[in-house]
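Sanity check

After download, print the first record. It should look like this:
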Amino acid sequence: MRLRLGYRCRQLSKYSSLLLLLMIPDSVFIRVSFFLTQRPSSALLTPLSRCHSTWRNAAPSIPLGQPLTGLLHAFTIADVITFPRWLSGLIAVCLLGGGELWADDWKELFQFQEDCAGATAEALPSLIERFGKMEESYSRGRAFIAVAEAWFRLQPLPEKATFSPSETSLPPLPEGFPAELVPAISRYQEVFAPFNKLQTEFTKSKQRVAFLSHEQDYWKLLSDMLANQNPPFTTRVVAFNWGHWCGTGSDRFYAPQSRAILMALLRDQRWAEASGACLSVYPQGAIDGTVRILSSLVSDPILVVAGGLALAGLPPPDYYKAQNTRSLLGLMVVLSGDERVRLLTILAARASPENLTTYYRALGKFVPRYEEPGDARWPTSYFSSDDNLSELKASSVGQAAQTTALDFLCAQATSSLPVEAAEELVRVFYQKRHPTMRSALHRLLEHPSATVAQEAAAALTKLGEKVEMPAKLGPVRYRILINGQPYADQKVSWFVAKIGGGSFGSKVTTTADGMAELSRDYFLNDSVEAIVLRSAETTALPQTWFGVYLSAPPATDDLIPVNVETALQTIHLELPRPDAELANQNMEVVLWGEQSGKGANIGFWMPAKFSLPVAPKIILPSIQRGTYRLEIRIPGFTTRTETLTLGASEDVTLAFQRGSDIHFTPKLPAGWDVRAIIPELRQSGKRVDADWDDEKRILRGVPAGAYTLHLPSSAEVRKRIMGLLPDGPEFSGTDVPFEVTDTTPKILNLGEIPLEILPPHQ
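Expected structure tokens:
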């Protein structure tokens, strides 16, 4: 499905997509636009992790209730996201809803999810059989989530779990921390401790299996577990991990894996550990089955979940706490009882700015929608958001709890809210359309963000008011001049460093007069420490290269001048090899701004990396004076890495030393991934620095000398590797001696190097 869809998406241009746009029925169009404006970070059609920030930067003022205007506006913004790859693809999916694309993975998935949601105990075995016969695909994880939740919902209830008193002490609590949440934290620690111990033991043992290289085995194991074949399951399921860095699509594994672990513990009747596993289920797909299991295992699930939320809300914030907050909020929404609302308001009142958005979304589910005769409901999205709260349906609460949630949300509506939290609050008000929200929406009209004010005005319009928009500051405008001339029609990368740590950024294209516009939303709430504007990352020789630090912009609409002085820079290369050996060769040149200090140094983080024909000199036509790290790799020479002051009038000369690129191919036992093997270069028994190209898997530019290439054993790999931990047989390491001389060719190929399989338990 992905390959076919990707191919089709690449065939659609920006303008053909715009024509297709006009053909989409209104009902479908609203759904698509709602997805784009509210859930652009979903991984359904794109692996781009920066989708959300780039969309918000490109279209910061799309008002709710005007999807067509907003989406057409986005089409006029150049280079927001690669349109043919995701936006056109999304439109193509909608247009071809009854055709070949929907006939593939996603149509089957939607039908399977629907069947699982309404499954009976009699139908469950056939669903398990259908899952086992599914082909491997990107959507199989979502299919497992659906059948797992059906299994949780229909299986006989487990016994109550028993827990030992928690040995974990309470963390330091801030002044004024609500006393009633202290026992909740203790209770959460007690319930979560057995599962946490299980995870810790597996992490220390490093007996892990990489999902990426054993995907077929993983789905076979889950199919067997659903059918209860070849128990026990816990050890084998928990052993699996993603097998690569986070942010590389890992959610497609971790979301189903969180349910697989819970299912394995239930199959093996490990009730205490299963209780903690319930609290760690990823917030994707339905969770009603998970909630049923949790409510059976512990007698006080609301207190336990509240304790987890309180613990996750303690400083300092981090990614894992935010993930845990989303999981626990999902559980709190689906659990039963009015007490949830009161506890959520206490927790939300202390929530960090990063978590306010999800708390507002959760509390909004307890507010009934105010309906008038003929009032059309806001359409339901077909797509999952990153925290899943948008798709979860809250279990009912009484009138008093509904009023508590509504009053709390209205009281939160102030002009000092973070932009994303204020937008979420307006979104709740827009969807619920309750008359009592009018005063809160009027307060949000005064928010400094034009985006928030426009969305508040749209919500008030839906309530029948005629709203006059108050004046707001426009976007932050920088006019970039290079040696007095506008930096016209060029891509510029920008980065915003936040007070207290953290940063974000994107790209923008300057106008004909060199103006770069950034949404004012990024600079509100006094959280900006510094801004960097710099030449965009490039794969071609840059005509102009600069990077400047700027302070937070003033609260005015004044144009901010950015004057950059640049000069031509010539770098001469002394290359001691015959010209014939350099013919038709390319060199890799990487130009970094110095990453520490300010003032004379140029501070930015992404380099220019380009390939040029090997020549005796490099000419940078227009580079800002400053300190740079320059890396040059030329076949047949050692890599030169120099910190230089460039942009001065003097030419620079760099002398290169002869060297050779070392090629080799490790022959690994079945089950091991070649990426696990990181070689060491040794000389006289000591490790020496080497330029290891992990992508091409070669040692670059090794200078003359006698060396040993050390390939590590499986035991060495397990001690130091992050991620790729396979379950293949153990093997020994090996040492391969070689020598580089003045007559060694540019490429020295050591050939295939076998690694010997060790007997079991050796």
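If your output differs, re-run the checksum step. Summary of this record's structure: The chain is about 40% helix and 20% strand.
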